[in-house]
Amino acid sequence: MSHSTEAGTVPHPALQVPYRDLDQQRETATLGMFVFLLTELMMFGGLFCAYLVYRTLYFPSFQEGSKHMDLAIGAVNTAVLICSSLTMALGVQAAQKGRSKAIVSWMAVTLLFGCTFLVLKGVEYYQHWRAHEVPGLGFDLASSTAGVDIARVQLFFVLYFIMTGLHALHMLIGIGLVTWITICAGKGRYTEGYHNPVENVGLYWHFVDLVWIYLFPLLYLISRTRT
Amino acid sequence: MSAAPTAAVHPREHYLNVDYGIRSWLLTTDHKRIAILYMISVTVMFFIGGIFATLIRLELMTPAGDLVTSDTYNKLFTMHGIVMVFFFLIPSVPAVIGNFVLPMMVGARDMAFPKINLLSWYLYVIGAGITLYCITIGGVDTGWTFYTPFSTTYSNTYVFGSIVGILFAGFSSIFTGLNFIATIHKLRAPGLTWRRMQLFLWSNYATGVIMILGTPVVAIALILVAVERVWHIGIFNPALGGDPVLFQHLFWFYSHPAVYIMVLPAMGVVSELVTTFSRKRVFGYEFVAAASIAIAVFGFLVWGHHMFVAGISLYSALLFSIMSYLVAIPSAVKVFNWTATLYKGAISYRTPMLYAFGFIGLFTMGGLTGLFVAALGVDIHVTDTYFVVAHFHYIMVGGTVMAYLGAIHYWWPKMFGRMYPEGWAKLSAGIIFIGFNVTFFPQFLLGYLGMPRRYHAYAPEFQVLNVMSTAGASILAVGYMLPLIYLLWSLRYGEIAPANPWGSTGLEWQTTSPPPTHNFEETPVVTEEAYAYDKHPEMEFVA
Amino acid sequence: MVDHPAGHRLVIFVWGAAVYYSYGAPPKNALRVYGTAKQWMWKFQHPDGQREINELHVPVGQDVAVTLISQDVIHSFFVPAFRVKMDVLPNRYRTVWFRPTRAGTYHLFCAEYCGTSHSGMIGWVMVMEPADYETWLASGAEGSLASSGDKLFRHFGCISCHRADKGARGPDLAGLYGKEVHLQDGTTQIADENYIRESILAPKAKIVAGWQPIMPVFQGQVNEDEMLELIAYIKSLQQNPLNVNPNAPIPDEEQRKRNPQVEPQVTRP
């Protein structure tokens, strides 16, 4: 697929068919990533909407559910993700300067943070399972607080697992994407003139982080009262 | 283009003959080949959905449920809905016509993301495959609307598999919309400003916006149903305090805008047809373009009108009703502007134009009956009856399918370099128009008289109208078979088409028919607004 | 172009909205009928005990309010001749009303797809002249809904806690229906059919102020027919206007003072 380029110059190997130059390609790819993230926002939005509806209807039961969240793991995970966004941003900056080794280093640290998040999440899920808090797998919770209905607490946990599960799936995909970027950077594919994939993966990573920043307060924090 | 009366010839090399073999098709990134792949898949699904419709109408000839069992009948209407909505109506105009024509209309070599375009086709095929598999091993009987708790707890059919198939189709749709938006924003040829774009582009842009905003919500709604079904834990289960009506909100939040995904590209086609076949600029171009955007925006604000008797509050019902009236206004603006375009135009009654006329008339009827159901008091009586069935078939079939057929005929010479046989085409259009009205008009009456929808057996006083409807369906079936035959025939024996048989000012017509792989020999430069027929009296029909 | 049709549309919208508003507000002194929808039949219960399956007898010229609930999936109560339709939901009572103006027999259809025999879930509404209706009512009732409910109230042991005397471990239910109830979290709620149902099936969800959350859960033990009987019984319990019982615990002085006899209210669907 060759282009007719000006003055017989060789087109950049990363230039795709419909584009006349790398700038147009970069702008379009970034627009594409933003539009895609918009679809992700709508998807999580549907879940947030369901959560909001039930939380309003069954407030005491959802409050009870929040109390069973592991605040320590949640807080550490939040810090881990925020740090991973920092290292990702530094990796993008390195890409903008065309420094391949730096890209690889920052991406590796980001990967480390991402995997840490998933491991801690797994530990948290395991703890919930041991405490009989997983709906469908021997859910058994007792509470004598007024206004709490166990069936509705189960509803809280269903939403908790689906929302954090979908988020974890997106983290896994993000880890895959970052791995790919790391490998390509190691091969020296990214230069000052061409590093758009790094930027776009960065956008995706920041979005997944942002979803967690909403999930954490909504699920863990906002109903914690001093008991 | 030249009006010289020499015999038309194909260009030496074009997108169809540049490469041969199954791999060159299955691994193509050429948007035109992908459009042809979609055309084949979508046609297969249309006829499968049509077979289900045939069985339904045969059963409904008699009041008793004597042709198939109740369970089978329930599966038939469910699968007719799923196949037609998700695998025909949503992809038809955008993924077939849009994929083929859109990059050429913006003057680009291909879509913004050609590989994602191919991926969207594969996702469609996988989704169709999974859904067809579920159909053959036993089917699904929840209705295409999957209302809970029937779909989550009570149905004994392949709900999970069908949902997975639909999710694949949904992601295919999202990627198509993403491509449209990026292409229109970023790949326009030099000189092609937003206000010089052809109206088909405006419509598909608005469609892309709906696809990307709405589809993810139905995806999550269906995922929740699937989770509840498989693990027996769920958020719509009343025994847990779950609200089955919440499902309806999440479902219709997409499925109402989905009908605009089905109709907006069709309206875009009609804009193109009306202007080409009356040799006139579109009356009120800005209004038609703005109306496309308005339909997309307002379309997201009316979903509750599917739920007036379902248990929503009075205040939300009032809001949804008034919004439903408002969303009719941009559609009416378009119909008015098309009509004004026709006025004093040099009208040519070729087949594509006949389909455009059919669309305008039948869409208007369907749209006006939409106002009936938007009226709260009336809807109490007619919702969930055949009145609603007739209403949406007027828009989907009388509207979208007619526009799709019109588009196929209009762009057939561009796609394949062949003309279709005009006589047979006109005959088919007439048969389809007559068959359609005989099928669906009686259903308005049936609904008003009280026949509920999704009924396998019905009260005997409804039989006469049902027989009339089935008779119409048999005529309609003949009408649909004919184009399949003569279009395929034309691929080999049809008259060779010139580059621009309709003398259209559209950018896609300023290249050869069929086009080369990269659409244009040189990047076109646009210097004037669309539809400038008054500035180009030399352009005329050469077919 | 826009003005003229828009004017028509506004008129139709307002007219339609007015009809819908009245549809959602059953009149207070309507004849009450209770019913359950289940796959695939309609069961109606009249307050004085008449039970019907797939048939509904009503008198002509009188407002009739039918309170319905589903035992399984969503159904829809549709009488084309009356221009009335309402979805019937599981776990939530909804009330539809109409006033038949002509005696006769009219189709009743289920209008929300509900499974195999959705098109078989049909019946008849028989509108009768008042005299005929009285005759029909008098024949073969097994005892009113409320009296059946009384039996259940003892059978399930409700009577052991919900009493007016010192041994009560739950609020006295006399005069409860239609009253404003004060809950432990500070909110108030009108005690309608849905509130009573929730209190039986998920008692911990809303605790009345001043009482302990000790009521056992009856989810799975009370079916919909029995639920309607219990509700009818509770509705029939009238408050003693003097409310003099020195031995009764008074968990909340305010609550005691707010126990005037109240007209039973028909709730919005």
Tell me what you see in this structure.
Chain A is mostly helical and 227 residues long. Chain A has a single domain, classed as Four Helix Bundle (Hemerythrin (Met), subunit A). In chain A, 73% of the residues lie in helices and 0% in strands. Chain A is built from six helices and no strands. The radius of gyration of chain A is 22 Å and the shape is elongated. Chain B is mainly alpha-helical and 543 residues long. Chain B has one domain (22-535): Cytochrome C Oxidase, Chain A (Up-down Bundle). In chain B, 66% of the residues lie in helices and 0% in strands. Chain B contains 15 helices and no strands. Chain B has helices at 22-26, 31-59, 70-106, 114-137, 150-154, 159-186, 199-231, 244-276, 285-298, 314-342, 351-374, 376-382, 386-416, 422-449, 463-493. Chain C has two domains: 26-140, Cupredoxins -  blue copper proteins (Immunoglobulin-like), CATH 2.60.40; 145-257, Cytochrome c-like domain (Cytochrome Bc1 Complex, Chain D, domain 2, Orthogonal Bundle), CATH 1.10.760.10. Chain C has a five-stranded mixed β-sheet with strand order 3-2-1-5-8, covered by helices on one side. Chain C has a five-stranded mixed β-sheet with strand order 4-10-9-6-7. Chains in contact: A-B, A-C, B-C. At the A-B interface, helix 1 and helix 5 of A face helix 6, helix 7 and helix 8 of B.
What would a concise description of this structure say?
Chain B has 543 residues and is mainly alpha-helical. Chain B has 15 helices and no strands. Chain B has a single domain, classed as Cytochrome C Oxidase, Chain A, CATH 1.20.210.
